[in-house]
Each structure stands twice: as C-alpha cells, then as structure tokens.
Amino acid sequence: MRIEQLGEGTPEVAVVAAIHGDEPCGVHAVERLLADDPETERPVKFIVANELALEREVRYVDEDLNRAFPGDPDADTHEGRLATDLAREVRDCTTLALHSTQSYGEPFAVTDEVGAVARTVCPHLPISELVDTQNDTDGRLIEYPHTVEVECGYQGSTEAAENAVELTRGFLRATGVLPAGESLPDEGADPVEVFRLDSRISKSPATEYEVFAENFERVEGGEAFAAADDRRLVADEPFYPILLSAYGYEDIFGYRSDRIGVLEG
Ligand SMILES: [Zn+2]
Questions:
Q1: Cβ distance 257 to 194 under 8 Å?
Q2: Which of 18, 131, 170, 185 has a CA that sits 20 to 30 A from residue 109's CA?
Q3: Which of 38, 37, 127 is nearest to 111 (CA)?
C-alpha cells in the first residue's frame, strides 16, 4: 500500500485508488494530482491500495479486497491483511474510492445510504447518477461511514482515467481541500438522479449472453432486456438496470434498481 499526502497536518480526507488491481484509472488520478501539487486548504492523503495486484494487472491476488473488509491482520490472504491496513488509514477520513466497470462508460457514484456525505459530495462531482446500495455492502469499503465510491467509466479506458481526475478534483473541492472557486460554470447545477439498488439479475449457464437495455434507463414490464443463448429475460415489473452487461460478471447480468429521486446541487 502506497500512501502520499498533500498539505500539512493529519488528513481527514482520503482518496483511494487500486482497490482492484485491474482498474488503473484511480492511480492515474492520484499521479496527476500529486504531479500538479496544488495549493491545499486542508491536508489530503492519497492511497494506492493493492500495489501487488496492480503490478500483476489482476483484480486481486487472493480474494476481492472490496469484499474483504474489515479484514484481519493475521488473515491467510494478501487482501485480508491489506483490508485491515486500509480500513485503519481511512477510519477518520471522508473518503473517495475510485473504481471502473465493464458495463458503463459514464461516471456515477455509489454510497451505502443517501446521508450527509453523499448529499455534500455528490452534487460537486461530474456525475448524473448516484446509486444507493441500501447497506447491501458486505465486506465493501463503502460500508465505512463517510465513504463515496465512484465508477469512473470503462476499465482500462482513457476516458475513465480522465474522468477519475475530474471526479477527484470535484471531491477535493467538495471537501474543502481545494478552493471552491475556479469551478466549471454549471458545476453543481445539474441534479443527480438517485437509484436504490433492489435485486441481482441472475445469469443461467450459457455460451452467449446479450443485453438489450441501457443502464439507468427504465425497462418496462414485459420488455425483454437480456438473453442467455436463445432464452430471453423479460421484466416482470418495470425497473432501472445498473451495472448491466453481457460479460461483466460471471453469475449475474447486473442489478435491478428503483429511481427514488434527485439530489439538487
Ligand atoms: Zn473496482
């Protein structure tokens, strides 16, 4: 785990990259911010979490770090031990965790509830959607208070790396690390749509998968939204798909959600 700091004192703000070793966008953002070395109004720490997985270009070495919290210093797995160290580093911090996906190109945020931190931070981020996981976060970093996860775009893409930089800058302005001025004219003006995670869309064994629906766009009852070989999946009730993709996950297509409102900037 690599830890860097901008500003003097004990940081109460943290940015975490490379919880997954095959998602380089966050590391790009950390490197950019450290290279920029901006004037800060309060200190911030940058953490590159799973350096070993990053070096090997794999999601994880022994187990998924984002299912391993709170971890154990004596765990048998690399990620089990790392989870304890990372949890200790972010314990007293308002934290942004940078991720990327195989299912959606636009950045969006994920929190375990729509609480004070989500309301304060999300309107300052260049996002249109916030996903509330409703505490269905077993072993994930966002089960810690004051943590916002962002999905920066497609894994390994240049856009995700650029989005990660803008998301990090927005987060640092929202938390008072960077001055609030100098912002984009429309920053904070666009409402953020809030979606509440509902259920997993399971995937039966097949050789070919397809999806017909768009993430965050309503699927109507009776509409076919995916297929496993020639078996089509039809919605019983309307829902909004999240992290929906043909091959992103082994056992699920993604998640159903409800649209529950908007956060005003
Ligand atoms: Zn990730």
A1: no
A2: 185
A3: 127
CA 138 to chain centre: 15
From the list 49, 70, 59, 53, the residue with the least C-alpha distance to 139 is: 70
Measured in angstroms, how far is the CA atom of residue 22 from the centroid of ligand 1?
8
Ligand 1 centroid – CA 152 distance (Å): 10
Amino acid at 80: G
Q: Residue for token digits 């008072």?
A: 176
DSSP H helices, the chain, are 25-36, 51-56, 78-90, 116-121, 158-174
101 alpha carbon to ligand 1 midpoint, in Å?
Answer: 7
Output the CA 167–ligand 1 centroid distance in Å: 15
CA–chain centroid gap for 156, Å, is 15
Q: Write the pLDDT tens digit of every residue in 115-129.
A: 899 999 999 999 999
